[in-house]
Write a structure and sequence with these properties.
The protein is mainly alpha-helical. It contains 13 helices and two strands, in the order αββαααααααααααα. It has one domain: MetI-like (MetI-like fold), CATH 1.10.3720. Helix content is about 75%, strand content about 5%. Strands 1-2 form a two-stranded antiparallel sheet. A hairpin with a 4-residue loop joins strand 1 and strand 2.
């Protein structure tokens, strides 16, 4: 049992890391809050004084605000559906004994380690280019007209690119969960006459519920801040402007730091609302 002295020593040793972490989070947050109440135009007069909640009102009443929120949620929802569904299938497949299993697992997981900008460039130039892309050649081979992916199917293209990057993460978590499944339970169900689909629906899926909620929670937190893939591919055009990209446009393109900071506060509020909702779901699954 830890003594009072050992607990105090542990707190003292952890204090520098905790202070550094708090500073890393609180300093940018404090600066964002500070600038959100000011009219700050770096290239058009600089600091023009306090404006109160004017930036918040302007940002939320902008015609681009609610469409950007809806776009963000659609992309997050689409990516979650694809990664969870395909992640379960891939995890089951990778759990089967096969030749070169280790190499196959590494190849499946490797896209997760590719930078978002690099993966977006690869998809944009190698796969979705309407002239020289792989998809264009496949369409031509079947006598069809190539699709302008990033303009005609812009939302689906973004979801496809982001799903490709996050699918390995979901697969890895779900594969770990499947490997912890009690084999004796599956064998007993098989001996009792349960068909493969029945074993999957009544044994495997309930066992994966905790892993699925963890995947949804972690991916949602990161996907709410999606930016690089949109910046590289569509530039926020064709209905792909997310809340994060709208903030970027207000801060860097419009040079309105105050308005962009107010948008950042709204993004933080949205992320926390969703995170609290998901944490409650995770908590219920973990307590079950």
């Amino acid at each position: 049992m830890a003594t009072q002295h050992s607990r105090s020593a542990a707190r003292i040793m952890m204090a520098p890391a905790v202070i550094l972490l708090l500073g890393w989070m609180l300093v940018p947050l404090s600066m964002t809050l500070y600038f959100s109440f000011k009219k700050f135009l770096p290239l058009r007069g600089g600091d023009l004084g306090w404006v109160g909640f004017e930036n918040y009102v302007r940002f939320v009443t902008s015609s681009a605000f609610w469409p950007s929120v809806v776009t963000t949620l659609v992309i997050v929802g689409g990516v979650l559906l694809i990664t969870v569904f395909l992640g379960v299938l891939l995890a089951i497949l990778l759990n089967q004994p096969m030749w070169g299993q280790g190499i196959v697992r590494i190849l499946v997981i490797s896209p997760f380690f590719v930078m978002p900008t690099v993966s977006a460039l690869v998809w944009k130039n190698m796969f979705m280019d309407p002239v020289n892309g792989l998809f264009a050649h496949l369409w031509k081979a079947f006598g069809a007209t190539p699709v302008e992916w990033l303009s005609d199917v812009s939302m689906g293209s973004i979801i496809m690119i982001v799903s490709w990057q996050w699918l390995p993460f979901a697969t890895l978590i779900l594969l770990t969960a499947i490997q912890s499944l009690d084999r004796e339970q599956l064998e007993a169900a098989e001996m009792d006459g349960a068909q493969p689909l029945q074993r999957f629906a009544f044994i495997t899926v309930p066992h994966l519920s905790r892993a699925v909620t963890i995947v949804i929670l972690i991916q949602t937190i990161f996907l709410l801040a999606i930016f690089a893939e949109i910046f590289v591919t569509t530039g926020g055009a064709f209905g792909t402007r997310t809340l994060t990209y709208l903030i970027y446009q207000r801060v860097l393109e419009s040079q309105n730091v105050g308005l962009g900071s107010a948008g950042g506060v709204y993004a933080i509020i949205l992320a926390n609302i969703i995170a609290i909702f998901l944490m409650r779901i995770v908590g219920k699954n973990l307590d079950a």
